[in-house]
Design a protein that fits this description.
The structure is a single chain. It is built from 10 helices and 7 strands. With 269 residues, the chain is of the alpha/beta class. It has one domain: Rossmann fold (3-Layer(aba) Sandwich). The chain has a 7-stranded mixed sheet with strand order 3-2-1-4-5-7-6, with helices on both faces. The protein is globular, with a radius of gyration of 17 Å.
């Protein structure tokens, strides 16, 4: 494991996560024994804007119905279930955090998508897949935890089929100083590895991607925004202080310390 991965896993590990999810569902008047993708979408999209951002990113990326997708850094699997349940995709998902992987698997089974999504522990810088396996690689709010972005982008290119699409949502370094901590992905700078938007786009081109563009301006929701109101929110999976951490992220965006990006990039045909 790379040096930074141990504190990253520690940052995300909650312990008793399924119990926390079940409690949140009960408090929202749902039956935790009969969850649906829609119910879970109130708590399982672990990025700014939550489910709305996943839907917008899938639309901007024009993810084809029924394609084969890698969810790279899948968290507890909300985006994977959206892709499989709504877009009919088959999904392979990996994540560094063992507890998230286990919960993602259980939730996939509980909503009847266990046969369309497979989940395993893995690192985006060393993907456990054959060359040219996927039509699309989706990566949401993961790059901020990854120091070795050249390796991450090279691996995404390798596992994409020629002509395949890499779509990343994340927060980049802004011009107005360091962001305000604690943040959703890092309580201290120890697990936060930001680059400027220009550097990110440049690294993708250097890795071999073409048609690299940032389409965040076309989105009504942004990776740095808080969860939409009236949903359960990310506290069960991300911690009870997530409201403060998301608030710091939103303030940092307003201050020009962070810049939300939604990136599309193609593996050349
Ligand atoms: C903010 S969460 C986003 C989860 C998911 N993409 C979503 O949007 O719901 C960040 C996730 O990235 C994972 N992660 C961080 N570094 C990683 C790495 N090097 N390889 C794989 N997963 C990683 C964490 O374990 C965590 O689940």
């Amino acid at each position: 494991m790379a040096n930074e991965t141990v504190p990253v896993v520690k940052h995300y590990t909650r312990n008793n996560l399924m119990e926390r999810i079940r409690t949140a569902l009960v408090e929202a008047d749902y039956d935790p024994d009969q969850p649906t993708v829609e119910m879970l979408s109130e708590l399982d999209h672990l990025h700014g804007g939550g489910y709305a951002t996943t839907r917008t990113q899938a639309r901007l990326a024009n993810i084809p119905h029924g394609c084969h997708v890698l969810d790279a850094g899948c968290g507890i699997g909300g985006p994977s279930r959206y892709l499989a349940g709504r877009l009919g995709c088959t999904v392979e998902a990996i994540d560094l955090t063992p507890e998230y992987v286990e919960i993602a698997r259980q939730l996939n089974e509980s909503v009847g998508l266990g046969d369309r999504i497979s989940v395993q522990i893995g690192n985006v810088t060393e993907l456990p897949f054959e060359d040219e396996s996927f039509d699309v690689v989706l990566c949401q709010n993961v790059t901020m935890n990854v120091a070795d972005k050249p390796a991450m982008f090279a691996e995404a290119l390798r596992v994409l089929k020629p002509g395949g699409l890499y779509t990343i949502s994340h927060l980049a370094e802004g011009p107005n100083g360091p962001p305000i901590y604690p943040l959703p992905w890092a309580r201290t700078p120890e697990t936060s590895f930001l680059e400027t938007p220009l550097k990110i786009l440049d690294l993708l081109s250097q890795a071999g991607f073409s048609a690299v563009e940032d389409v965040a301006q076309q989105s009504s929701t942004k990776p740095g925004e808080g969860s939409p109101p009236r949903t359960i929110g990310a506290a069960p999976a991300m911690g009870d202080d997530i409201v403060v951490r998301t608030g710091n992220s939103s303030q940092s965006v307003r201050d020009g310390r962070l810049i939300p990006m939604i990136i599309l990039a193609r593996r050349p045909s």
